[in-house]
Structures
1.
Amino acid sequence: KLEILEFPDPRLRTVAKPVEKVDDELRKLIDDMFETMYAAPGIGLAATQVDVHIQLIVMDLSEDHNKPMVFINPQITPLTEEQAPYEEGCLSVPGFYEKVTRPARVRINALDRDGNAFEVEADELLATCIQHEMDHLDGKLFVDYVSRLKRDRIKKKLEKIHRQQG
Ligand SMILES: O=C(O)C[C@@H](Cc1ccccc1)[C@H](O)SCc1ccccc1
Ligand SMILES: [Zn+2]
């Protein structure tokens, strides 16, 4: 449905602006993002990845793709100093996985698809995923957490693949 930008596309470095109005137009984008995420497949997708630079994240960690979550203008608060590692991947960095450590538990405050404020506390994969998605909204990628040497190798490999695709 929507095209997912791939590293090292500079548009992935754009800092997303707050959503002004939660209306039917935004809800159409949300539905398109879910369709794109499920088709990838992925368990999370940030608007930045589909070249829309607003603070919007969709996620669904369920097996049956029936537990959709929407985070609009999310704010995150770490709830512990404890860090948890995870072998992260990214739909914008296809085929590469690197260990990233992040706060193990976080609180998220956001608006839902109806514009209502809500708060959730997350740990495990939900904490990892929401932090990974919120990085996208700040123009950050998980490859920013590995050495420059590793990042440049990934960059070269993806640039080669993109050249071959014309
Ligand atoms: O933002 C994305 O690109 C989707 C990411 C979300 C994610 C990254 C790291 C850790 C958890 C979630 C993934 O590509 S979605 C694919 C996936 C599926 C199950 C578990 C981890 C990653
Ligand atoms: Zn990602």
2.
Amino acid sequence: MKIAILGYGVVGSGAYEVAQAAHNIEVKRVLYKRPIDELGDIVTTEYEDILKDEEIELVAECIGGLHPAYEYVSAALKSGKHVVTPNKNLVAAYWDELHDLAREHGAEFRYTASAGGGIPWLFNLQRQSRSDDILSISGIVNGTCNYILDTMHNEPVDFAEILAKAQELGYAEKDPTADIGGFDTQRKCVISANLAFGTSISEEDVPVFGIQNITAGDIKYFNEHGYTCKLLMNAGQTETGAYAYVEPTLVSRGALESSVPANNNLISLTGNHIGTLSFYGQGAGKYPTGTSVIQDVLDIENGWKFSDKSEKNDVSVDNRLEAHRYYIRENGSCKITGPLSVTEAHRLASESSDEHFFMAGIRE
Ligand SMILES: NC(=O)C1=CN([C@@H]2O[C@H](COP(=O)(O)OP(=O)(O)OC[C@H]3O[C@@H](n4cnc5c(N)ncnc54)[C@H](OP(=O)(O)O)[C@@H]3O)[C@@H](O)[C@H]2O)C=CC1
Ligand SMILES: N[C@@H](CC=O)C(=O)O
């Protein structure tokens, strides 16, 4: 299969290199803003060169962001080309539209790398959902935040310094606010929940609280009380719809999540029949993510199709009945609350006048 890769940054260059070792794939074109010496004349600055090339059956969009990624991906699907992307911004924001376009034009639209980086999480979630009722999903899905929190738990480091290191290692988003503010995790939660529950919730449905205000003092308190702090996504079915939220969470030292080091992710699903399945591995970085992109390409090349259900479950998110205790630090003093609903805790966070406010849910 002849393919084109759009963008040649961390993931695009990783995908290109991994593709060299994959049988049956030829990278015919790479779209980039300027020449790339080692790639020679396969590089183009004109997307039309790719779109109009009938030999190119698949476009791997690795530019990131919403525009022009959206325009490029839509045009590829409309012309019947398959699309693979690690771009969670795009997938979460245009969920219905891009799936509809793919279905209308008989193209495959796959985005395994958009949540879990190198882990075949979405692939297996979708696979499991064919024969099971997925009751809940949860986990660590941001490599940058896990790298920061893991390092802070183990050594006295400055937050800004360790974030800069995560950027240097290629884990962070172009604007790392997306990582530390929890928005990247929120998008991955949207994508995972939509696949799990066959629905189309959006980013606005998922309240988010990030880790940008965590301090060495908070971590010291957690270490002394036997807790590890992780940024988790959570979503599940309820009798009336679903809950879904993202927040720093204190887990006990014995919990699986507690021992997840560096840029790794740990993501779990609980199905009615299968019980709980957990997936672990590198959630960010050039080769893990590049590999995941090329695995999707190979699945399409092999003719593997997931039946994309066109009928949707209309699920509404309500976090009012989802309650647990919280660690809250406000205006310099910290406390452990009694059970608070997620709705109430996130309201407190958004209404606090303390710009350094921090909270973390406590998993019992
Ligand atoms: N890094 C990671 O570990 C992971 C990233 N992702 C996702 O993968 C996507 C790519 O991320 P990443 O590779 O890290 O980002 P990078 O910024 O490293 O790469 C993006 C590349 O696209 C190029 N580019 C931007 N706009 C255009 C354009 N209009 N035409 C041609 N090239 C363009 C950029 O060029 P220039 O540098 O010159 O601006 C850059 O080379 C994002 O959606 C990200 O969220 C998903 C999982 C993991
Ligand atoms: N910035 C993201 C990259 C992968 O999705 C992360 O740190 O997980």
